[in-house]
Amino acid sequence: MATILVFDPALCCSTGVCGVDIDQVLVNFSADVDWAKQNGADIIRFNLSQDPIAFAANAKVKDALHKLGEDALPLILVDGEIVLTGHYPDRLQLSSWTGIDIPQEQPKINAGGCCSGNTCE
Amino acid sequence: MLVDVALVTLVNNPEAKGMTFLADPPRFLFYTGKGGVGKTSIACASAVKLADEGKKVLLVSTDPASNVAQVFGIKIGNHITTVESVPNLSALEIDPQQAAQAYRDRIVGPVRGVLPDAVVAGIEEQLSGACTTEIAAFDQFTALLTDSAITSGFDHILFDTAPTGHTIRLLSLPGAWNTFLHEGKGDASCLGPLSGLEKQRDQYKDAVDALANPTRTRLILVTRAQTSTLAEVARTHDELADIGFSDQHLIINGVFPDEEGPKDLLASAIRERERSAIDNMPSALRSIPTDRVLLKSQNLVGLDALRHLLTDEKGEVYLSRIDTNLRIPTLGSLVDDIVKDGHGLVMVMGKGGVGKTTIAGAIAVELALKGFSVHLTTSDPAAHLAETISGELEHLTVSRIDPSIETARYRQHVLETKGAQLDSAGRALLEEDLRSPCTEEIAVFQAFSKVIREAGNKFVVMDTAPTGHTLLLLDATGAYHREVTRQIGDSQVHLLTPMMQLQDPKQTKVLLVTLAETTPVLEAANLQKDLRRAGIEPWAWVINQSITVADTHSRLLLQRAHNEFIEINKVLETHSTRCALVPLCRNEPVGIERLRQLVRR
């Protein structure tokens, strides 16, 4: 199965609850990652404020940060290739990278905030 | 005017048969209470007393305003130092700010110059919250609380501060450690500073166990005889009792002596107010052993003063001539400057208990009396002041935000969204994250943000404000919008983020309120430093409840006034170019008339 590396922006915590507002996108993404891991996916998250060395050590991530600044984050690498910058994937995208099926009866999590997935105008 | 003051003799609490909080003391003693109540002085006096009794004592100070080194006339610092003037006593100073900085350097140092500067600055801000400092300090405590060669020679170890319930609970949650250690760092918001220390998990557990064991640890709550301070200490009592701190004692410090009362109107008013605060103190505090320590006219410097603090002996105090001729403006003169802009946001900031709500109320009343439209928004939990002026004045509207309601709503929202997906360990961790001190600040500020918008066409006066740290985190979106504006081309788009509004002194004036005492001034200076990091320059300082401009002949109060000068000068010389002085009043400043007296002095 593909290895997915998630480079998060400088978050106080990966749930975002101690941030200034509850970012629904972050809440959903954390839940989606949980779901994918439970189904055997290989996903590792790095938080810029706690593990910046991981960002500096990866040439592609470092490069993107120099070009785009923090707007490059979150950045997703699938098997070493950048597949997404600047926003989080939804469960459908995780499913296509990992090959894990989303069961029909399981309700898809709604993207409550702006710009999660491709729902935002 | 020069006032000549003679010698005065004070008798320490004549009924006291020694202090109960030092009877059969366990190995660890923690002193806790809000800034300025006298924790460090009492911890020092306790340490000297135990050492005088022949016990080997280690005194650990984390107080940034600590005068421990000065008291003992030696240089201490971050290693155990023998105090030559007191046999059996050693001391150690821990600087939590420095510990937090060391942690930031460890994380950020290796990527400085490798990642872009703006990115590095963002990481540093994330690591500048109150939790980082708190956990970094606890990390330093750990070695002292667990059996180790360093502390084996000491009978008693005294700490002039205690960890908060939030920190202890977080460290006690197995869920916190599991996510933190095994699933990639970072799910527990406040545990960041412990990263890289996973091998010491058992040591943290031992430290937490030691705290909750009454045969090993006693907690001493230090308070003043004031309603709000007593309420705060009652909350601390409940919170720490919940997590096992069962051996607790209460010290009411700085109690106004009875014999000063009849001599002076102000003195007797203070004495009455204190008596009523003690009579009506929260019931949770009534069941725990309590000691009272009388107000001293002098600052506690020098061994003699310390030895007298907790005994029944008489202390002799020499009072010198004092110059009461202060040329510091009144609050009214600040209001005169505020009206010049015709509208705007006035944010009154300061630590709890310095009188933010009173100052905000006085400013709002004065602006309304001058004919300006004013909206006063307060988060004062007692709502006393708001009730007394609401509906009383033309042009003045008063609204109230209840911090506990706002915070509860915020927590509820998070638990319903995020919590729904979590197992019980994850949910416990999330609930603890939501008890972090940032949560209330954020929840209240969200409620206030709605009111801020009105400041474009009237005056909005608020009795609270977010810290610079929160503002910088808030500005993450602002920074993004500015970048968008820049890319579009600035000419067509006129964009104003909340942060930009707060940084512009024409639109927002931040007033820092303090008392003329060492710790409150230091705390206000730290708030100022924090705001400056967010690009906000406090517009003025207000020194509240000052005796120097109060009407009194009490010798005790006059000597206190003398001590205030040092702090007032510190504010004028190093902290602020614009400053107002507000007197300590005989009566509680509620209602239009009494608030006006504060403004005009």
Share of helix of chain B, binned = 40-55%
On the 0 to 100 scale, the average pLDDT of chain A is 77
Assign a percent range to the helix content of chain A.
25-40%
List segments of chain A where confidence is low: pLDDT < 50 over at least 5 consecutive residues. Answer: 13-20, 107-121
Spatial arrangement of strands, main beta sheet of chain A: 2-1-3-4
Question: Biggest interface in this structure?
Answer: A-B, 37 and 44 residues
Q: What's the overall geometry of chain A? A: globular
| Relative strand content of chain A | 15-25%
Described by strand count, sense and barrel closure, the largest sheet of chain A is: 4 strands, mixed
Number of helices of chain A: 4
Q: Secondary-structure element order of chain A, as H and E?
A: EHEHHEEH
Distance between the termini of chain A: 33 Å
Number of helices of chain B: 23
The rough form of chain B would be described as globular
The share of residues in extended strands of chain B comes to 15-25%
Q: How many strands, what sense, and barrel or not for the largest sheet of chain B? A: 8 strands, mixed
**Termini gap of chain B:** 17 Å
Oligomer: heterodimer
